[in-house]
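Checklist before submission:
- one chain only
- standard amino acids only
- sequence pasted in full

Submission:
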Amino acid sequence: MDITPMELLIFALASFRLTRLIVFDKITEFLRKPFLEEVEEKDENGEMEVFWVVKDGKVRGFFGELLSCYWCTGVWSAIFLYVLYYFYASLASPVLLILAVAGLAAIIESLVQKLIN
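Returned file contents:
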């Protein structure tokens, strides 16, 4: 298997962005909702904190654990992207590039926010 450093970077950024999309982003909440329950609690400052709790059941619990674990979802995201690229390179290439650009943009935005705050 030959992979260039640029391909590795694209896969890494795309996997990073896809993982964040699945685990954290509001737009994909419908994926998490059957397996995770949203709970609100007040913290010591009186501010509301929202977090996810894994629902009961073997199947729902398994997928709930998977979707609440950034590291676990990241592995499966990387596998999905690689398999997609391996079998359908012409379809996967634009998806990988879009996710990679979005991932890099997210990293840059996080750095900018840290610098101005």
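Reviewer check: The radius of gyration is 17 Å.
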